[in-house]
Specification:
The protein has twelve helices and ten strands. A hairpin with a 2-residue loop joins β3 and β4. α3 runs parallel beside α4 and α7 packs antiparallel against α8.
């Protein structure tokens, strides 16, 4: 994706003898003024009821079903990785963990009810490769679980991922399967696994939900056809929704159509940066759907649970809803098990299970050094490869 030259100016708010806290408070006050101006918050306050009426009239704003007692055997899954990887003198050490927990299940077949496993990869290429590698590990596991279900050895009803379901892949990487680049190959492997996973989910009538914590997209701006909405979907929904409500944004195929129409209607009035961002988003969505057609069926929704959460935040999800299943029932279930952190409880569990602690990094680095020394019979060469590039960061890796 294209990058713009950095145009922001940082102006130090210094004053001789003035306490740092006072200086920082001045900076915060100035940033608050800029936020209010840029996000047009006065307009949001004025048009809240207007936006709610549009969403309601379009059938997008809905009440969460409260008396729905559907229970699912749920598999929650999370992957974590070192970002950036641990820098060694001979390369970089990437550590990935995959954690899962079965929630509300009587039987889990041959798979442990709860588990965390680790993977280690020594890399010398782009350190951002941890992102696609972690997604490969995540989706390979889900594919194996769904194959077990297809063969009658698993009873899971719903798979819950900590993160997005629709693959976040730079548009220029999509479909370039002949490329020699390792990171491009990895991203296209994610696409292939996603298509296989979604096909198996449909075949086995298994719901797959991604709980999207970090939200940058503004699909509601596009669907509502209002360039004045400057905040992301999660922030907008947190403001618009009352507890016990949700917004059905639509499928990614529908979002692509809305994006195309929005760009066509508003291109002349948009800032170059905004227009470029929208075109890149459209290119990303359409290319992913072209390479993995089933991703077009992934539905997007935002809900605000009935139970209070910290900051009363809304929760954005992406879901594959198989034939015979209803999204409103899924939202009702997710809302019922959403805790104070604003995410379903099983996601809270696996999120805490997969934390990569510095003690683990220490053990991995020391074990690699030991294995190299043992195999090469040369302590100096082993240290030249597995030593820390930045010894001043030794405490980060667990050295004392």
């Amino acid at each position: 994706m294209s990058e713009e030259p950095f145009e922001e100016e940082f102006i130090p708010l210094t004053s001789e003898g003035e306490p740092l806290t006072s200086i920082v408070f001045k900076g915060v006050k100035e940033e608050a003024r800029k936020i209010i101006e840029f996000l047009k918050t006065d307009l949001l306050l004025e048009k809240r009821d207007y936006y709610r009426n549009i969403l309601s009239n379009n059938g997008m704003l809905r009440k969460i079903i409260q008396r729905n007692y559907t229970k699912y055997c749920c598999l929650a899954l999370d992957t974590s990785f070192t970002s950036p990887p641990l820098e060694l003198t001979g390369g970089k050490l990437l550590v990935i963990t995959r954690s899962h927990v079965f929630y509300g299940c009587r039987e889990t077949g041959s798979i442990e009810r709860t588990s965390t496993v680790g993977y280690v990869k020594f890399i010398q290429e782009n350190e951002t490769i941890g992102t696609p590698y972690s997604k490969i590990i995540e989706r390979e596991f889900v594919v194996n679980v769904l194959k077990e279900k297809k063969n009658g050895r698993q009873e899971v009803d719903l798979v819950m991922l900590d993160g997005e379901l629709f693959p976040r892949i730079p548009p220029g990487y999509v479909g370039r399967k002949s490329s020699e680049s390792l990171i491009i190959k990895a991203y296209n492997r994610v696409l292939d696994l996603t298509q296989e996973m979604l096909e198996l989910a449909e075949e086995t009538s298994t719901i797959i939900v991604g709980i999207v914590k970090r939200v940058y997209g503004r699909d509601l701006q596009v669907v509502l056809g209002d360039p004045n909405i400057k905040i992301n979907d999660k922030a907008f929904s947190t403001f618009i929704l009352d507890n016990g409500e949700w917004i059905n944004i639509g499928s990614y195929s529908e979002i692509a159509v809305s994006l195309s129409e929005y760009i066509r209607n508003y291109a002349r009035n948009l800032e170059p940066r905004s227009l470029r961002s929208l075109n890149e988003r459209l290119a990303w969505i359409t290319r992913v759907i072209d390479c993995a057609p089933k991703t077009g069926d992934i539905r997007v929704a935002v809900y605000k649970a009935e139970n209070p959460t910290y900051f009363m935040i809304a929760t954005k999800i992406e879901a594959l809803v198989p034939s015979g299943k209803q999204l409103d029932e899924i939202i009702s279930y997710l809302s019922r098990i959403t805790g104070v952190n604003g995410v379903p409880h099983p996601i809270d569990i696996v999120d805490s299970m997969g934390i990569i602690k510095r003690e683990l990094l220490y053990l991995v680095q020391q074990q690699l050094y030991s294995e190299l020394t043992s195999t090469m019979k040369n302590n100096k060469l082993a240290l030249s490869i597995a030593g820390l590039t930045n010894p001043e960061k030794m405490t980060r890796v667990g050295f004392r």
